[in-house]
Amino acid sequence: MLTPDEFFVLLDDASPQLVASVTRQMRDYWIDRTGEADLPRALERERCPEFARRVRLHLQRDLCAGERLSGAGVHPVFPARAVS
Questions:
Q1: Does residue 42 belong to any structural domain of this protein?
Q2: How far apart are CA 6 and CA 64, in angstroms?
Q3: Is residue 79 part of a domain?
Q4: pTM for the complete prediction?
Q5: How many domains does the chain have?
Q6: Rounded to whole angstroms, how far apart are CA atoms 69 and 65?
Q7: CA 2/CA 33 separation, integer angstroms
Q8: Quick check: helix, strand or coil at residue 10?
Q9: 57 in the Ramachandran plot: left (φ > 0), alpha (ψ -120 to 50) or beta?
Q10: Rounded to 5°, angle at Cα 64 from 59 and 68
């Protein structure tokens, strides 16, 4: 039997592009809905620490690649922080 963390890690191993895409979609959804999106912290609270680390890496790759949220200018990992 797999834990949720183990399952999501296997999913990321099998299809990192899919996980990265869904991570972006969830980030955008929560920022539009609540103004913040700290997906890794939420995953850590739900006892998925390794998957939280991987989600954080996907978000950091987007940030390093220069992706910005659609006009929002909000940092994709931390709430209410403007991207310079």
A1: yes
A2: 27
A3: no
A4: 0.75
A5: 1
A6: 12
A7: 32
A8: helix
A9: alpha
A10: 70
In a domain, 75, yes or no: no
| Greatest Cα pair distance in the chain | 45
Q: 76 lies in a domain?
A: no
Query: Which domain covers residue 57, as residue numbers?
Result: 4-64
Convert the pLDDT of each residue in 18-57 to its tens digit: 999 999 999 999 999 999 999 999 999 999 999 999 999 9
DSSP assignment of 15-70 equals -HHHHHHHHHHHHHHHHHHHS---HHHHHHHTT-HHHHHHHHHHHHHHHHTT---T
pLDDT digits (tens, 9 = 90+) for 4-17: 999 999 999 999 99
